[in-house]
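Data availability (excerpt). The following record was deposited with the supplementary files.
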Amino acid sequence: EESPPGSPYLSDWRMERSAVGFGDLHRAEVIVASDGAPDVHYLLAVAHADGLNGTRWRTDVSLHNPGATEARVAVAALLQGHDNDRPRRVERVLPAGRSERLVDVLGNLFGVPGIGALRLEVASGEVLALSRTYTLVGGGSCGQSMPALNAAAAVPADGEARLIGLTRAAGLESGYRCNLGMLNTAA
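Predicted structure:
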């Protein structure tokens, strides 16, 4: 039976030769260690870019560590139109039970303009993340918030996905609009 990393697992041990056990039975508690691979999540839409009609789109990211120990996360900027094989990365450490807000993440943390996604590689602990992409309008803002998605939720190359709840307007001048973004998580 498989145990999650860091949890104890009881195991019985006895010497055996040709299916005949001999020697004393030993019981040991084994701690299952992590394989060292980070837990990967994606924030699918980030921006530091100018838009139509004088809009200026920015993304703030909120990181939260709900655990009892510190969490370590590497934030990698995956920019549209760039080779993201070795993206710029910034390391963050979140104390237990604490949050951090990264204001205008592409502009302030990475110092770059553009649009794209963020890859969050959680090396230790647990991290929850939420992005808010917005532009200031009048006395407020207009935009969207999106939670980070685990890499395991990605549609495999031979898989299928469905988009539900989409609506079509009769004309181009009025009605509904839908934004669709896609991220290739493969190399």
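Summary of structural features: The mean pLDDT is 84.
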